[in-house]
Amino acid sequence: MWNEIDQHMQHWIREAGERIRDAFQTKLKIETKSSPSDLVTNVDREIEQFFIERIRRTYPTHRILGEEGLGDTLEALDGVVWIIDPIDGTMNFVHQQRHFAISVGVFQDGVGMLGYIYDVAFDELYYAQNGKGAFLNGTPLPPLEKTTLDRSIISLNATWVTENRRIDPNVLAPLVKKARGTRSYGSAALEMAYIAAGKLDAYMTLRLSPWDIAGGMVIVQEVGGVVTNLYGEPLNMIEKSSVFVSKPGLHEEILAIIQR
Ligand code: 2AM
Ligand code: CA
Ligand code: CA
Ligand code: CA
Protein backbone atom coordinates (compact mmCIF):
# COMPACT_ATOMS: atom_id res chain seq x y z
CA MET A 1 0.00 0.00 0.00
CA TRP A 2 2.75 2.52 0.89
CA ASN A 3 4.63 1.88 -2.36
CA GLU A 4 1.44 2.56 -4.31
CA ILE A 5 0.73 5.77 -2.40
CA ASP A 6 4.34 6.82 -2.96
CA GLN A 7 4.05 6.30 -6.71
CA HIS A 8 0.98 8.56 -6.86
CA MET A 9 2.60 11.14 -4.64
CA GLN A 10 5.82 11.32 -6.66
CA HIS A 11 3.69 12.41 -9.64
CA TRP A 12 1.34 14.69 -7.74
CA ILE A 13 4.04 16.63 -5.93
CA ARG A 14 6.07 17.29 -9.07
CA GLU A 15 2.91 18.39 -10.91
CA ALA A 16 2.08 20.71 -7.99
CA GLY A 17 5.61 22.12 -8.19
CA GLU A 18 5.14 22.81 -11.89
CA ARG A 19 1.93 24.70 -11.09
CA ILE A 20 3.76 26.80 -8.52
CA ARG A 21 6.56 27.61 -10.98
CA ASP A 22 3.90 28.57 -13.57
CA ALA A 23 2.29 30.87 -10.98
CA PHE A 24 5.42 33.04 -11.04
CA GLN A 25 4.18 34.25 -14.45
CA THR A 26 0.89 35.45 -12.88
CA LYS A 27 0.07 38.19 -10.38
CA LEU A 28 -0.10 36.74 -6.84
CA LYS A 29 -2.97 37.66 -4.53
CA ILE A 30 -1.20 38.21 -1.21
CA GLU A 31 -3.04 38.48 2.12
CA THR A 32 -1.89 38.53 5.74
CA LYS A 33 -3.21 36.12 8.40
CA SER A 34 -2.32 36.44 12.13
CA SER A 35 0.27 39.22 11.69
CA PRO A 36 1.91 41.37 8.97
CA SER A 37 4.65 38.73 8.62
CA ASP A 38 2.16 35.85 8.34
CA LEU A 39 1.43 35.69 4.59
CA VAL A 40 -0.84 33.57 2.43
CA THR A 41 -1.46 33.68 -1.32
CA ASN A 42 -3.98 32.28 -3.79
CA VAL A 43 -1.30 29.74 -4.76
CA ASP A 44 -1.08 28.32 -1.19
CA ARG A 45 -4.83 27.63 -1.32
CA GLU A 46 -4.84 26.32 -4.90
CA ILE A 47 -2.03 23.86 -4.20
CA GLU A 48 -3.69 22.58 -1.02
CA GLN A 49 -6.90 22.09 -3.05
CA PHE A 50 -4.89 20.30 -5.80
CA PHE A 51 -3.67 17.65 -3.33
CA ILE A 52 -7.03 17.31 -1.58
CA GLU A 53 -8.86 16.59 -4.86
CA ARG A 54 -6.36 13.88 -5.86
CA ILE A 55 -6.19 12.25 -2.42
CA ARG A 56 -9.98 12.19 -2.01
CA ARG A 57 -10.49 10.73 -5.49
CA THR A 58 -7.88 7.99 -4.97
CA TYR A 59 -8.18 7.30 -1.22
CA PRO A 60 -11.67 8.34 -0.06
CA THR A 61 -11.18 6.90 3.46
CA HIS A 62 -8.00 8.87 4.17
CA ARG A 63 -8.23 12.12 6.12
CA ILE A 64 -6.39 15.34 5.37
CA LEU A 65 -4.97 18.03 7.65
CA GLY A 66 -3.87 21.08 5.64
CA GLU A 67 -2.55 24.45 6.78
CA GLU A 68 -5.06 26.45 4.77
CA GLY A 69 -7.97 24.56 6.32
CA LEU A 70 -9.47 23.09 3.12
CA GLY A 71 -9.16 19.52 4.43
CA ASP A 72 -10.74 17.88 7.48
CA THR A 73 -10.94 19.04 11.08
CA LEU A 74 -9.08 16.44 13.11
CA GLU A 75 -9.11 15.71 16.82
CA ALA A 76 -7.03 12.55 16.63
CA LEU A 77 -4.66 10.81 14.24
CA ASP A 78 -6.30 7.39 13.90
CA GLY A 79 -6.31 5.83 10.44
CA VAL A 80 -4.36 7.28 7.52
CA VAL A 81 -3.87 11.05 7.76
CA TRP A 82 -2.18 13.26 5.17
CA ILE A 83 -0.60 16.35 6.75
CA ILE A 84 -0.02 19.00 4.11
CA ASP A 85 1.72 22.36 3.93
CA PRO A 86 1.15 23.47 0.32
CA ILE A 87 3.84 26.16 0.53
CA ASP A 88 6.19 26.19 3.50
CA GLY A 89 8.08 29.47 3.50
CA THR A 90 5.38 31.64 1.93
CA MET A 91 7.37 34.80 2.72
CA ASN A 92 10.29 33.43 0.69
CA PHE A 93 7.88 32.38 -2.07
CA VAL A 94 6.53 35.94 -2.28
CA HIS A 95 9.77 37.89 -1.81
CA GLN A 96 12.47 35.60 -3.21
CA GLN A 97 10.77 33.04 -5.49
CA ARG A 98 13.04 30.41 -3.88
CA HIS A 99 13.73 28.77 -0.50
CA PHE A 100 10.18 27.46 -0.10
CA ALA A 101 8.86 23.91 -0.31
CA ILE A 102 5.81 21.70 -0.54
CA SER A 103 5.77 19.56 2.60
CA VAL A 104 3.66 16.43 3.07
CA GLY A 105 3.68 13.67 5.67
CA VAL A 106 1.45 10.59 5.56
CA PHE A 107 0.79 9.11 8.99
CA GLN A 108 -0.94 5.89 10.08
CA ASP A 109 -2.35 5.89 13.61
CA GLY A 110 0.10 8.68 14.50
CA VAL A 111 3.18 6.98 13.02
CA GLY A 112 4.94 8.75 10.13
CA MET A 113 5.03 6.41 7.10
CA LEU A 114 5.86 8.69 4.15
CA GLY A 115 7.51 12.11 4.06
CA TYR A 116 8.02 14.56 1.19
CA ILE A 117 9.72 17.94 0.97
CA TYR A 118 9.88 19.37 -2.52
CA ASP A 119 12.18 22.35 -3.05
CA VAL A 120 10.22 23.72 -5.99
CA ALA A 121 12.66 26.39 -7.22
CA PHE A 122 15.64 23.99 -7.17
CA ASP A 123 13.64 20.94 -8.33
CA GLU A 124 14.92 18.86 -5.39
CA LEU A 125 12.57 16.24 -3.98
CA TYR A 126 13.49 14.83 -0.58
CA TYR A 127 11.38 11.83 0.43
CA ALA A 128 11.38 8.88 2.75
CA GLN A 129 9.38 5.80 3.55
CA ASN A 130 9.46 4.48 7.11
CA GLY A 131 12.00 1.65 7.21
CA LYS A 132 12.97 1.99 3.54
CA GLY A 133 15.41 4.92 3.67
CA ALA A 134 15.43 8.55 2.60
CA PHE A 135 16.28 9.91 -0.84
CA LEU A 136 17.04 13.14 -2.68
CA ASN A 137 15.88 12.97 -6.31
CA GLY A 138 16.30 9.17 -6.21
CA THR A 139 19.76 9.11 -4.59
CA PRO A 140 19.82 7.52 -1.11
CA LEU A 141 20.78 9.85 1.74
CA PRO A 142 23.44 8.27 4.00
CA PRO A 143 22.83 7.86 7.77
CA LEU A 144 23.76 10.96 9.80
CA GLU A 145 26.95 10.78 11.82
CA LYS A 146 27.40 12.08 15.34
CA THR A 147 28.84 15.56 15.61
CA THR A 148 29.66 18.27 18.16
CA LEU A 149 28.51 21.88 18.50
CA ASP A 150 31.89 23.44 17.71
CA ARG A 151 31.82 21.73 14.28
CA SER A 152 28.14 22.50 13.59
CA ILE A 153 26.00 24.92 11.64
CA ILE A 154 22.79 25.49 13.57
CA SER A 155 19.70 27.08 12.12
CA LEU A 156 17.51 29.40 14.14
CA ASN A 157 15.49 32.56 13.70
CA ALA A 158 17.22 35.78 14.81
CA THR A 159 14.06 36.88 16.69
CA TRP A 160 14.80 34.29 19.38
CA VAL A 161 18.10 35.93 20.33
CA THR A 162 16.36 39.32 20.72
CA GLU A 163 13.98 40.05 23.56
CA ASN A 164 10.79 38.01 23.03
CA ARG A 165 7.99 36.43 25.01
CA ARG A 166 8.88 32.77 24.44
CA ILE A 167 12.51 32.25 25.41
CA ASP A 168 15.23 34.04 27.39
CA PRO A 169 17.86 35.17 24.84
CA ASN A 170 20.54 34.32 27.42
CA VAL A 171 19.63 30.66 27.00
CA LEU A 172 20.43 30.68 23.28
CA ALA A 173 23.43 33.03 23.33
CA PRO A 174 26.01 30.43 24.51
CA LEU A 175 24.78 28.10 21.80
CA VAL A 176 25.18 30.68 19.05
CA LYS A 177 28.61 31.58 20.40
CA LYS A 178 29.93 28.02 20.47
CA ALA A 179 28.52 26.87 17.11
CA ARG A 180 30.70 27.02 14.00
CA GLY A 181 27.99 29.09 12.32
CA THR A 182 24.29 29.97 12.27
CA ARG A 183 21.79 30.18 9.42
CA SER A 184 18.13 31.02 8.97
CA TYR A 185 16.36 29.90 5.82
CA GLY A 186 12.74 30.76 6.64
CA SER A 187 11.27 27.36 5.73
CA ALA A 188 11.00 24.80 8.52
CA ALA A 189 10.54 22.04 5.94
CA LEU A 190 13.70 22.94 4.02
CA GLU A 191 15.65 23.30 7.24
CA MET A 192 14.66 19.75 8.16
CA ALA A 193 15.51 18.53 4.65
CA TYR A 194 18.95 20.15 4.95
CA ILE A 195 19.54 18.29 8.21
CA ALA A 196 18.58 15.00 6.56
CA ALA A 197 21.02 15.77 3.74
CA GLY A 198 23.82 16.78 6.14
CA LYS A 199 23.86 20.44 5.02
CA LEU A 200 22.79 21.67 8.47
CA ASP A 201 23.47 20.06 11.85
CA ALA A 202 20.63 21.35 14.05
CA TYR A 203 17.45 23.40 13.71
CA MET A 204 15.37 24.84 16.51
CA THR A 205 12.22 26.91 16.60
CA LEU A 206 9.73 27.85 19.26
CA ARG A 207 6.30 27.37 17.76
CA LEU A 208 5.36 25.30 14.74
CA SER A 209 2.29 23.40 13.59
CA PRO A 210 2.08 19.75 12.50
CA TRP A 211 2.10 20.67 8.78
CA ASP A 212 5.42 22.51 9.15
CA ILE A 213 7.20 19.36 10.32
CA ALA A 214 5.20 16.27 9.29
CA GLY A 215 7.14 15.54 6.09
CA GLY A 216 10.48 16.47 7.58
CA MET A 217 10.01 14.28 10.62
CA VAL A 218 9.75 11.11 8.54
CA ILE A 219 12.73 12.07 6.38
CA VAL A 220 15.02 13.13 9.25
CA GLN A 221 14.22 10.10 11.41
CA GLU A 222 14.88 7.78 8.50
CA VAL A 223 18.54 8.89 8.39
CA GLY A 224 18.95 8.70 12.18
CA GLY A 225 18.31 12.36 13.04
CA VAL A 226 16.55 13.21 16.29
CA VAL A 227 13.24 15.16 16.31
CA THR A 228 11.82 16.40 19.64
CA ASN A 229 10.53 19.59 21.23
CA LEU A 230 12.98 21.93 23.01
CA TYR A 231 12.57 19.88 26.20
CA GLY A 232 13.73 16.73 24.42
CA GLU A 233 10.22 15.25 24.45
CA PRO A 234 8.58 13.47 21.49
CA LEU A 235 6.27 15.53 19.23
CA ASN A 236 2.71 14.69 18.41
CA MET A 237 1.15 15.72 15.11
CA ILE A 238 -2.05 17.22 16.47
CA GLU A 239 -0.86 20.34 18.32
CA LYS A 240 1.57 23.27 18.02
CA SER A 241 4.92 22.84 19.69
CA SER A 242 8.55 23.95 19.85
CA VAL A 243 10.77 21.88 17.58
CA PHE A 244 14.38 20.77 17.90
CA VAL A 245 15.88 18.69 15.10
CA SER A 246 19.46 17.56 15.20
CA LYS A 247 22.14 15.07 14.30
CA PRO A 248 22.72 12.41 16.97
CA GLY A 249 25.19 13.37 19.70
CA LEU A 250 24.69 17.06 19.02
CA HIS A 251 21.11 16.72 20.24
CA GLU A 252 22.25 15.77 23.74
CA GLU A 253 24.96 18.45 23.77
CA ILE A 254 22.54 21.25 22.84
CA LEU A 255 19.81 20.08 25.22
CA ALA A 256 22.31 20.13 28.08
CA ILE A 257 23.19 23.75 27.24
CA ILE A 258 19.67 25.11 26.90
CA GLN A 259 18.37 23.27 29.96
CA ARG A 260 21.17 24.54 32.18
P1 2AM B 1 4.67 28.97 6.41
O1 2AM B 1 5.47 29.72 5.43
O2 2AM B 1 4.03 27.74 5.86
O3 2AM B 1 3.68 29.80 7.16
C1 2AM B 1 9.26 30.70 8.82
O4 2AM B 1 10.31 30.95 9.69
C2 2AM B 1 8.78 29.29 9.07
O5 2AM B 1 7.84 29.32 10.15
C3 2AM B 1 8.04 28.71 7.89
O6 2AM B 1 8.22 27.33 7.92
C4 2AM B 1 6.62 29.14 8.18
O7 2AM B 1 5.66 28.33 7.53
C5 2AM B 1 6.56 28.92 9.67
N1 2AM B 1 5.52 29.66 10.38
C6 2AM B 1 4.68 29.09 11.26
N2 2AM B 1 3.85 30.01 11.77
C7 2AM B 1 4.15 31.20 11.19
C8 2AM B 1 3.64 32.55 11.29
N3 2AM B 1 2.64 32.84 12.11
N4 2AM B 1 4.20 33.51 10.54
C9 2AM B 1 5.23 33.22 9.71
N5 2AM B 1 5.75 31.97 9.59
C10 2AM B 1 5.23 30.97 10.30
CA1 CA C 1 1.48 30.02 6.76
CA1 CA D 1 4.68 26.04 7.18
CA1 CA E 1 2.36 27.19 4.48
Kindly describe this structure.
- The chain is an alpha+beta fold and 260 residues long.
- The protein has two domains: 2-140, Fructose-1,6-Bisphosphatase, Chain A, domain 1 (2-Layer Sandwich); 149-258, D-Maltodextrin-Binding Protein, domain 2, CATH 3.40.190.80.
- It contains seven helices and 14 strands.
- Helix 1 (2-23) packs antiparallel against helix 2 and helix 5 runs parallel beside helix 6.
- The longest helix is centred in the first third of the chain and has 22 residues, at 2-23.
- The N and C termini lie far apart (46 Å).
- The mean pLDDT is 96.
- The chain binds adenosine-2'-monophosphate (2AM) and calcium ion (3 copies).
- Residues 85, 88, 188, 211-212 line the site of one calcium ion.
